[in-house]
Amino acid sequence: MATYSTEIQTGGGGWQPDSPLQISIVNRNQVVPESGAPSTGTTVTWSGDQGNGSVTFFDGGSNFQGTAQFPGEGPVAYRGRRTS
């Protein structure tokens, strides 16, 4: 599992802090190691009642960039930096 501090960028504004993101895929340790981060080039996509997103990891899993969309809102740019 890896934890990231995250930011979103709305259409007219700069980057704003968002809630931390934890990535864990228990039955696919090759994608997200249990005690590590995804490797460079790994893309993770999710969709559900709480929103959807797609991010790609780089710098050995230290950072990601992508997009997210939360309920009742339009899509935003989404990025994160690994904290643990």
Brief overview, please?
The protein contains no helices and six strands.
The N- and C-terminal alpha carbons lie at a distance of 8 Å
Basic shape: globular
Number of strands: 6
Strand content: over 45%
Strand order of the largest sheet: 2-1-6-5-4-3
Largest sheet, described in full? 6 strands, antiparallel
Instruction: Count the domains.
Output: 1
Q: Please tell me the CATH architecture by its name.
A: Beta Barrel
The helicity comes to under 10%
**Average predicted confidence as pLDDT:** 88
Q: Report the CATH C-level class.
A: Mainly Beta
Number of helices: 0
Low-confidence stretches: none
Rounded to an integer in angstroms, the radius of gyration calculated over CA atoms is 13 Å
Structural class: mainly beta
What order do the helices and strands follow? Answer: EEEEEE
CATH overall fold name:
Lipocalin
